[in-house]
Write a structure and sequence with these properties.
The structure holds 3 protein chains of 3 kinds. By secondary structure, chain A is mainly α. Chain A has 11 helices and 1 strand. Chain A is globular. By secondary structure, chain C is mainly α. In chain C, α11 runs parallel beside α17, α11 packs antiparallel against α23 and α15 runs antiparallel to α17. Chain C is globular. The two termini of chain C are 50 Å apart. The chains are: A mainly alpha, B mainly alpha, C mainly alpha. Chains A and C meet through β1, α3, α4, α5 and α9 of A and α15, α16, α17, α22 and β3 of C. β1 of chain A pairs parallel with β3 of chain C, so a sheet runs across the interface.
Chain lengths: 318, 220, 668
């Protein structure tokens, strides 16, 4: 009985992240539009877009290889698994121990590895330039993320997300300098990883300024739908990650009664909305950077995370 | 002293170090001045908190001085200078931002280790406060070393002084007279430097330190 | 056990002499590689049974070498593990060479040395006294040198061979001195005797420095790496695989043997040295790799990176061992040794792939390849597996050893030393950076060799390779996957090795539910490669099935979109150099002193615009060039000595004699 319940909860989490991801994207777009005094697309527009794309036929470049066709499914599967392993409404789910935070970061790394390969497959210049910039961003964002994980793991004494989240929720954790540094760095990394302003612009169609969009330029139909869904999932994943580490309220692990589950889900929805709104405000007030300003921005995240780790190494009280 | 007050003092001192890093990161003058104002504001908060937990009312005065002079008057004045000199958009670094920050991290690590080793028996709050203060001082020096522009060097000097004030606030029993005199000496230094900036500018048409080196016949 | 292993090695040496007789005939290839395959497989089985069954077999003493010493051979757990790595790599390379050797220009220059090289590596690992260790070490260097200059028509290969020979001699010299100091004044060179004598103070420090210089020069630690990217690519590809995948591991073995086994209690600063060198090697190695256009040279530089990771893990283990934290030392050492095993697998695989590409197209330059995934689909699959594995991405094996290394780093705040508190986070950052850059590097390697459109007619005409080469590559690729999804059994097999070296071991992993790995406790960290792999397969398959059934499975081929700007020529595709350009701009100025100069012709001129990129190897400039200049200077001045009269020569000898006598007279 307990096993069935656990499987059901894990399945619910998988479905929840999958269903909420486009809504979150739509929400961020809507808030951004409202901040600019525009009406904006309806909240459900991303679902309609996905539906339309899924039904369209795929137009494949003549020299695209089998890898090009497999990659969207792979990227989607990897991102989906990674998102399902983050505690959202509840920690300590059935499979949550199968990958710790380092492994989740590496899973996203796998997804990116293949996505970049897809950009190179057809052999057009836009794919190349997008891929090349993406690896440049990743080569700084990934180490920064790992250093953040190090500093947080040293505070919580674990790299297991459920344990970390529970620790952050406990009174043992105080105001820590390294926590603050970690939060700033994690925010910067999340912005870069999700191709948001000021690093990249998710809405642009001006080729020279875009990174992620240039990389997936050759995709169409259901492949594009999967890529877009993966991008939405990734945004959801990062917001969930930040909230489960820095705002872990409402995530329960022990009780399984209806009230605690409902509070968990409700708290999660509120946190997502807050995170999405903050992102929209941030994106509205800031201008996009030139590509070669991005290394400085991400380098700052890397340095802050390194500083946080270093402080933790030097003294337990930082 | 309970955990929370300790944590907040800690957090504020740590934020000062972060603000120092932000100064290293900013390469535009106007942004740098803004960050300096934030730096001074964090300092004022930190000193005020120290006043609260040490129950030392004279520290409140130090905090107010820091807030009034360093967070408001000096930044506003600096901004006016920069605008009048027409260099508010200038970007001038001797070394890259990344390298400077890397070096800064090394300095912070160094000051942590040195301070924590030297003051092994002291009260933990004072210890770590001193360690942070030393980092702020070193970062201020680093800022002065890595910038060419005279205005950035002034800011580096001021943030260095902020580090000293932090150290003084952490160490119990620093008399008020000393702080006030330090604050005024900094103000006077600022005025003198400000005047000099205009004099330099009149003569050389720039505030780039390099130009002065050239004038003296030295090469960088 | 030891005796039968020695018979196998004797068989390999015998095979080398037969190979000379067989010469360049086609039969020679089949005989030599086939026999090498069988013998290495037997040796592999012996090593496996030693590792799992009864390590610590008795020492066998052969009446060879120094008359009062004899040649000692023994297989303990450490030797058994490295024998396993050597012979697994040897077997795969032999299988690959069965097909690949067909393309050899002058097989008579390769065949005799190949089995001898294998024999030498086995001997190094089995040696149980300093003399036979050094002799086998030098034998290994010489045979590999002969293989490096096998294709001696190319001038570059000769230069590579020369530099390799110099560095190898230098390394052996350092090791010789190191063992000399270890053995002490009595000159007792058997490892058993060395173990009982505990050198201390300056002597121990010197032994340590000499050992890291001697083994590091063979493994490719920066700054002793200069020969490696020249020599490894110069050899035939299956030999490159052995040199990169296996011989560097023999060097790691030498380091472990001296520093962890023979030398006794480590001093506090040793781990700092190893960690720093390891971290810098990892980051620099991969940055160099990113700047290369030659496919095999990319792989050689990436070997340097992986050696850096291994040494960083070993440095951590040393630090924990110094502080007496046996369980943490066991974690770090297991991570290092597992990475030794993993790297030997995927680096062999990648060199096999590069060799296949070289044969099919005749070039190693990535800018001249492209689109090979259509023409060599199977090679593309296995090469991709190698690329994912080496980039430390789940669910393959490279990730597991990196993950274990990171877990070990997370244990290190417990170290009391202040120096380590500063160094370890920095090394952690360097390792994280090198992991991310390795992914970039291998995206580039795979993307420009196998994806896109073919850039030259040679790339258009490429054809899939033969069955035995493919079999070797599939075999290694499968091992990569297995080691990635069920790493528990490999970690358990490493238990006895780790136990003998640091006096502790990781908890037994095979009993853990669902075959996940748990280094310390499940609440702290765990990873389950199998489940992650199954989840990936399942969710990918489900989504593909659902979309094809419920939404649409229609597909139309058309010209590439490219925002409506079709590229007319395949040469205008994005190039590997331009792919690396952003990273070069971010890291290059500091690490390589990179400079870009653009030359734009004035309006109206018909000259092409030109962009020149200048990269400098700062280590070469700062370290090797002054030495070379110094040697030249000395040589020029000593040249006069060749033109003296007999009387002058006699007086020189006389002066030397008097000087020596003087020294003897006044020495206290």
């Amino acid at each position: 009985m307990a096993v069935i319940r656990d499987i059901a909860l894990q399945g619910f989490q998988m479905l929840l992240v999958l269903l909420l991801a486009p809504l979150l994207t739509g929400f961020v777009r809507k808030v951004k539009a409202r901040l600019l005094r525009r009406q904006g697309p309806p909240l459900l527009q991303p679902y309609r877009d996905l539906n339309r794309l899924l039904r369209k036929e795929v137009v494949l470049a003549d020299n695209a290889s089998w890898l090009f066709r497999v990659i969207p499914y792979f990227v989607f599967a990897t991102t989906w698994i990674a998102a399902s392993l983050i505690p959202t409404f509840r920690s300590g789910l059935l499979f949550s121990w199968s990958a710790d935070l380092i492994a989740i970061i590496a899973l996203l790394g796998s997804a990116r590895f293949f996505q970049v390969l897809a950009g190179l497959d057809v052999g057009t210049s836009f794919g190349g330039i997008g891929s090349s910039r993406e690896v440049m961003i990743a080569s700084l964002a990934e180490p920064a993320m790992l250093m953040i994980v190090f500093s947080l793991a040293l505070i919580a004494g674990s790299t297991q997300l459920s344990t970390m989240s529970a620790f952050m929720n406990s009174p043992e954790v105080g105001l820590r300098v390294s926590l603050g540094l970690g939060l700033i760095a994690l925010t910067i990394v999340a912005i870069a990883e999700n191709a948001r302003i000021p690093v990249d612009n998710p809405a642009t169609h001006l080729e020279l300024t875009m990174v992620h969009e240039a990389m997936v330029l050759e995709y169409s139909g259901r492949h594009l739908a999967l890529i877009e869904l993966s991008a939405a999932l990734k945004l959801l994943l990062y917001i969930s990650l930040i909230t489960c580490l820095f705002a872990p309220w409402g995530i329960s692990s022990a009780a399984v009664d209806a009230t605690s589950l409902l509070t968990g889900v409700a708290a999660y929805l509120v946190k997502l909305a807050a995170g999405g709104s903050l992102l929209a405000v941030f994106e509205t007030v800031i201008a996009k950077m030139r590509v070669f300003r991005v290394p400085g921005f991400l380098g700052a995240a890397l340095m802050l995370a390194l500083l946080a780790t270093l402080l933790r190494f030097v003294s337990r009280s930082f | 002293m309970n955990g929370l007050t300790f944590d907040i003092a800690h957090m504020l001192a740590g934020s000062l170090v972060v603000a120092s890093f932000l100064q290293l990161y900013q390469d535009r003058l106007s942004a740098l001045i803004n960050v300096f104002a934030v730096h001074a504001m964090v300092l004022a908060l930190s000193v005020a908190w120290q006043a609260y937990i040490q129950d030392a009312p004279h520290l409140y005065i130090t905090a107010v001085i820091a807030l009034a002079f360093k967070a408001i008057i000096i930044p506003v004045a600096l901004r006016r200078i920069v605008v009048r000199l027409g260099i508010h958009r200038e970007i001038e670094n001797v070394v890259g931002v990344g390298l400077a920050m890397l070096f800064g991290i090394g300095l912070v690590a160094l000051s942590m280790v040195v301070m924590l080793r030297v003051t092994a028996e002291a009260d933990p709050l004072a210890r770590e406060d001193l360690a942070f203060a030393l980092s702020v001082v070193l970062l201020g020096l680093l800022l002065m070393v890595t910038r060419r522009n005279a205005v950035s060097q002034v800011i580096g000097f001021m943030s260095l002084e902020n580090g000293l004030v932090l150290a003084a606030a952490g160490a119990k029993g620093m008399p008020l007279v000393v702080e006030i005199s330090v604050a005024f000496s900094v103000l006077i230094a600022f005025i003198v430097i400000g005047i000099f900036l205009f004099r330099i500018r009149e003569r050389f048409d720039t505030v780039d330190i390099q130009a002065m080196d050239r004038f003296r016949g030295e090469r960088r | 056990m030891v005796a039968s292993a020695l018979y196998c090695i004797a068989a390999l040496v015998g095979l080398a002499t037969i190979a000379i007789a067989l010469g360049a005939s086609a039969r020679g290839r089949v005989v030599v590689y086939g026999a090498s395959l069988i013998v290495t497989l037997i040796l592999f089985a012996i090593a496996l049974s030693c590792l799992l069954g009864h390590p610590n077999s008795p020492t066998v003493i052969l009446p060879l070498g120094l008359p009062w010493l004899g040649a000692h051979f023994r297989i303990d757990a450490l030797a058994a593990f490295f024998l396993l790595v050597v012979n697994l790599g040897g077997a795969a390379a032999s299988l690959f060479a069965l097909g690949y050797g067909r393309h050899e220009h002058s097989p008579q220059r390769v065949l005799p040395f190949y089995p001898a090289y294998l024999a030498a590596m086995n001997l190094v690992v089995m040696a149980d006294d300093a003399f036979s260790f050094l002799v086998s070490w030098e034998f290994m260097s010489l045979t590999s040198w002969a293989l490096v200059i096998a294709n001696h028509e190319v001038h570059e290969n000769l230069r590579a061979g020369f530099i390799y020979l110099l560095m190898a001699s230098f390394g052996t010299l350092a090791l010789l001195l190191s063992f000399g100091l270890l053995a002490g004044a009595d000159g007792n060179y058997a490892f058993d005797a060395i173990r009982t004598s505990e050198p201390a103070g300056v002597v121990a420090a010197l032994v340590f420095i000499l050992a890291i210089v001697g083994t590091g020069s063979k493994a490719g630690l920066i700054p002793l790496h200069a020969w490696l990217p020249l020599a490894h690519p110069a050899a035939p590809s299956h030999v490159s695989a052995l040199m990169s995948g296996v011989m560097t591991k023999v060097a790691v073995y030498g380091f472990l043997r001296i520093v962890f086994d023979l030398l006794g209690t480590p001093d506090w600063w040793w781990s700092i040295v190893v960690l720093t060198v390891g971290g810098i090697t990892a980051a620099m190695g991969v940055l160099y790799a990113l700047m290369q256009r030659d496919l095999k040279r990319v792989l050689a530089y990436s070997t340097i990176e992986n050696i850096g990771i291994i040494f960083a893990a070993l440095g951590l283990a040393l630090a924990f061992k110094t502080e007496g934290l046996a369980w943490a030392a066991a974690l770090a050492l297991t991570a290092g040794l597992f990475h030794v095993f993993n790297h030997s697998l995927f680096k062999s695989l990648l060199f096999f792939g590069a060799g296949t590409v070289l044969n099919a197209t005749g070039t190693r330059d990535m800018e001249k390849l492209g689109g090979l995934i259509h023409r060599m689909p199977q090679t593309a699959v296995v090469f991709l597996v190698g690329c994912v594995a080496i980039s430390a991405l789940p669910p393959l094996n490279g990730f597991v050893s990196e993950w274990l290394t990171f877990q070990a780093i997370l244990q290190s705040p417990q170290l009391p030393s202040w120096g380590l508190k500063l160094i370890v986070p920095a090394v952690g950052a360097l390792l994280a950076l090198s992991a991310a850059l390795a992914a970039a590097c291998f995206v580039r390697a795979f993307g420009f060799a196998f994806l896109g459109r073919p850039r030259t007619p040679e790339a258009v005409g490429a054809q899939e390779t033969d069955t035995s080469s493919l079999a070797a590559m599939y075999f290694v690729a499968t091992l990569c996957l297995i080691a990635g999804i069920i790493p528990g059994i490999f970690i358990d097999a490493l238990g006895p090795v780790v136990q003998t070296l640091v006096g502790g071991r990781m908890p037994v992993q095979t009993g853990v539910d669902w075959m996940s790995i748990v280094p310390i406790a499940e609440s702290r960290s765990s990873y389950n490669g199998l489940l992650v792999f199954l989840f990936m397969i399942a969710s990918g398959a489900i989504s593909a099935f659902a979309i094809h059934r419920l939404a649409s499975d229609k597909l139309r081929r058309g010209p590439a979109w490219g925002c409506g700007y079709p590229d007319s020529s395949t040469m205008t595709q994005y190039t590997a150099d331009s792919f690396a350009q952003p990273i070069r701009r971010v890291f290059g100025t500091v690490v390589f002193g990179a400079r870009e100069t653009g030359e734009m012709p004035p309006p109206g001129a018909t000259k092409p615009a030109r962009l020149t990129v200048e990269l400098r190897d700062l280590i070469w400039d700062a370290l090797y060039r002054p030495i070379a200049t110094g040697v030249n200077f000395a040589a020029e001045h000593l040249n006069h000595l060749q033109f003296l009269t007999i009387r002058n020569y006699l007086s020189l000898v006389f002066a030397a004699l008097v000087l020596l006598l003087l020294v003897q007279a006044i020495w206290p």
